Amino acid sequence: MTYYFCILIGTAMDNLINIQKNPSPSTSSLPPLDVTPLQIVRPSDDFNNYTYGVGPSTAPKKQGRGRPKGSKNLRTPVKKLKTEDPKNRKVLSPRDFDSGITEAERETGNQEIVELVLKRFDAVRRRFCQLNLQRDILTTANVNCRNMGVQTNIRRRIGLVPGVQVGDIFYYWGEMCLVGLHKQTVGGIDYMTADDGAVEPLATSVVTSRQYDDETEDLECLIYSGYGGADKNGLPRDQTMDRGNLALDTSRRIGNDVRVIRGRGDPNDDTRKVYIYDGLFIVSETYFVIGKSGRKEFKFKMVRKPNQPNSGYANWKLAEELRTHDPRQGFILQDLSFGKEDLRVPLVNDVDEDDKKIPEEFEYITSQDHSRMMLDLNIDPQELGCQNCEDQPCFHQICMCRQRKSGELPYHNSILVCRKPLIYECGESCLCPNDCKNRLVQNGLKLHMEVFKTKNCGWGLRSWDPIRAGTFICEFTGVRKTKDEVQENDNFLFDSARFYMRFKWNYEPELVCEDVWESVPEVFNLTTQVLISAKEKGNVARFMNHSCKPNVFWQPIEYDTYVRIGLFAMKHIPPMTELTYDYGVSSVERIGEDENIYTGNKICLCGSVNCRGSFS
Ligand SMILES: [Zn+2]
Ligand SMILES: [Zn+2]
Ligand SMILES: [Zn+2]
C-alpha cells in the first residue's frame, strides 16, 4: 500500500481521512514502529479534494494538483545541491514544482491563500532549524518560498491587503513580505514608487520596531519616527526629507490610508519580536524635533481610522495588562486549576458580567489518568528509553530515543517541527535530565490561559500570550477509557477513531531542497483506539471548543508507555483568540463511488465558511 499526500492546495486543501478498521501493513515511508499497527488512519487513495463552502459530501470531484508524494518525477533531477553543499538549501528555480497558487492568487490573495503561504513558510523555517542550518535560515526559507511561487499580494497596494486581518500576528518580518502586508525587506517605511505606477512616492505601510516609535502607547494614534539619522560610519546627522520620509509626508498631503504594524517584544522570548497588524491609519502631521544626538529627526503623527476591529494592538495591550497586573475584576474564579498549574487559569464571563455561574464540577488533573488502563505497548518498559544519556540532554546521535525517531528530535526550541504518526518523548526510564529537548508535553502547560464565556458555544479557552505556530498548548487530559466504559452522553470525550479533516502541515521537501520521497508522513498511527473522557477529571483542554476551521490540532505523543494527546498551534494565534480544534465526526455514510457524508451528533456553531454543520 502506498501512502499518498496531497500538496496543500489553495482552496481545496482539506479532505476527510478514512479510518481503516482492518490491520494494515506498515509501509516503507513510515518510520519503524515497535508495534504492528492494528488500526491505521490514512488518507483515501484517490487524492480528490473538496471545495470549501460546498461541504465534503456534495463537492464536485477535483483533480488534485501536484503529484503524490513518494512518486518520482522523471523530469526532475531531484538530487540537487545536496552533494555540493549540504548546508546550502537554496532552491533556485521552480522546476516542476506546482505551488498550487495560481497567478491570479499570487496577484491578489484571500484569507485562505495568506494562511497557506504563512503555514508553508513556517514549515520550511522549522525544518531548517531542525537541520541546524548554520546561516541564513530565515532568508533561505523566504527566498525558497518566493522562488517557488509561495507568496501572494505581490504588488504594493494602498489600503487593505486581501486576506490579512486586523490583529494578525507575524513572528518574522519576511512573513509580512510574503503576504504583501509590508514589502520592504529592511526599512520600516514601505512606499510606492514610479516602478509601482505611483506619480509621487506614497507610503503604504509602516512597521514600528524601535521603542521610541510607539512612545505615546496610544491605541488611536502613534508618533512614527522618520528614517535615517546616521551616516555611513554610523555617525549622527540630520534626517533628510527623501524616500520613506518624503512618502509619509506626501501621504499626509494626499490623505491616503497607511497600514500600521506594531512591533512588540515577544513575552515568551524577549530576544525576538512579534509584529501585530493594527489596521489603517492616516498621517495627520509632519514635524521635526532635535533628537538626543542633537540632530534633526522627523516625526509623523498617525491617527487610526475609525470603525476598525479592536482585535489589533488594543487586544495585545489588554492581554499584556492581564499578564502583568493583578487579577482583573469580573473573574468568577481566580484559578480553575486550584493551584495545580504553574500559572493560574482564571474563569471569566464578560458576555454577562452578572452571571457568576461556574462550570459543572470536575477534578482538575494535569496529566492523563490511566490507572485503569492496560499499557499501550507490549514492551518491557526497561527496554524503553535512553540508558546512555545520563546527564546529557539527548543531543547526540547515540541517544536511543533519538535513534527511534530516525535521528531527529521532534521539537526545536519547544516548537513541534513536523506532525508524525506518533512522537516518542523521553520518559521515566530515560536517564537524561528533565530539561532534555525531547520532553515537552510531559512538562505541561506554559501559557497564560483563560476560560471564558463565548457568545453561543458555552465556555471556551483562550490565551493571553501570543502563540507561535507549532507551540505545544496543553495535553488533553482526562480518564483513559475502554469502549465499554464510555458513557453515551459524554460531551468531553476525545476519540481517536473519529473521522478527522485531513490537512497538511509539514514542510514540502521541494521547498527545502530535499527528495520528495523523504517527506514525513503526518497521519497518526495508533495501536489502539485512544478514548479519553474529561468529564469527571480534566484540564483546560476540556474547555476547548470544536471548529471546522480550527487553529489547534492534536498529535499523539508517547512516553512512559502510554499514549497522550498533545494539542499544538496550527498557526500563529494572536492573544485573546479562542482556541479550537477539530473534534472529528463519528459517522460516515457512502452515497456514491467516491462520495461520503460525514456527520456528527452535535450541531456545529463554529461559523466558519467551510463549516460541516455537525461534529463529534
Ligand atoms: Zn537520550
Ligand atoms: Zn530518552
Ligand atoms: Zn532525553
Architecture blueprint of SSEs:
Layout: E1 15-16, E2 18-20, E3 39-42, H1 103-107, H2 111-130, H3 137-147, E4 169-170, H4 173-178, E5 189-192, E6 202-208, E7 221-225, H5 243-254, E8 258-266, E9 269-290, E10 296-304, H6 313-324, E11 331-333, E12 347-348, E13 363-364, H7 400-403, E14 411-412, E15 415-416, E16 423-424, E17 449-453, E18 459-463, E19 472-475, E20 479-480, E21 493-495, E22 501-502, E23 525-526, E24 531-533, E25 537-538, E26 545-546, E27 552-559, E28 562-569, E29 580-581, E30 587-590, E31 596-599, E32 602-603, E33 614-615
Parallel strand pairs: 6-8, 12-17, 13-25, 16-27, 26-29
Antiparallel strand pairs: 1-22, 2-3, 3-23, 4-9, 5-6, 7-10, 8-9, 9-10, 11-12, 14-15, 17-18, 19-28, 20-24, 21-24, 27-28, 30-31, 32-33
Helix pairs in contact: 2-3
Bound molecules: zinc ion (3 copies).
InterPro entries: H3-K9-MeTrfase_plant, H3K9_HMTase_SUVAR3-9, Post-SET_dom, Pre-SET_dom, PUA-like_sf, SET_dom, SET_dom_sf, SRA-YDG_sf
Main location: nucleus
Keywords: Centromere, Chromatin regulator, Chromosome, Methyltransferase, Nucleus, S-adenosyl-L-methionine, Transferase
Report on this structure.
- The chain has 616 residues and is an alpha+beta fold.
- The protein has a domain at 185-308: SRA-YDG (PUA domain-like, Roll).
- Helices cover 11% and strands 23% of the residues.
- It contains seven helices and 33 strands.
- Strand 8 and strand 9 (269-290) form a beta hairpin.
- Helix 2 crosses helix 3 (137-147).
- The radius of gyration is 25 Å and the shape is globular.
- Residues 385-386, 389, 394, 401, 426, 430, 432, 438 line the site of one zinc ion.
- Residues 62-80 have a biased composition (Basic residues).
- Residues 600-616 form the Post-SET domain.
- Pfam families: Pre-SET, SAD_SRA, SET.
- Residues 51-102 are annotated as: Disordered.
- Keywords: Centromere, Chromatin regulator, Chromosome, Methyltransferase, Nucleus, S-adenosyl-L-methionine, Transferase.
